[in-house]
Amino acid sequence: MRWQKPVVIISMADSFEASVLATTLCKDAGVEHIIVKCSNEMHRKILLNIGANEIVFPESAIGKTATIYCIDKEHNNP
Asked: What is the Cα–Cα distance from 1 to 65, expressed in whole angstroms?
């Protein structure tokens, strides 16, 4: 699959200031779709307000996946 529009992924959750700056610069440069890694809910709200299109919380997603895996494994292997 080939992207038909500019997409940028910003993965600097450890530095909120850098994420804000990078998001702002991408928006100013005309990037149509900006995906940003984020570490908390307040940062998510701010990044969406300044132009991020999607926010990801990888640590949260991995935690949910691991929980589902453990529950499934327990139910499938009595």
From this structure: 26
Has residue 24 got a pLDDT over 90?
yes
Residue 19, number of CB atoms within 10 A of its CB:
24
Q: How far apart are CA 11 and CA 48, in angstroms?
A: 15
Cα end-to-end span (Å), the chain: 42
CA 77 from centre of chain: 34
- Predicted local distance difference test score (pLDDT) of residue 6: 83
Helices 41-49 & 16-28, crossing angle to 10 degrees?
20
What band does 73 get if pLDDT is binned at 50, 70 and 90? low
- Are 30 and 6 a contacting pair, CB within 8 Å? yes
Question: How many Cα atoms sit within 13 Å of 44 on the Cβ side?
Answer: 9
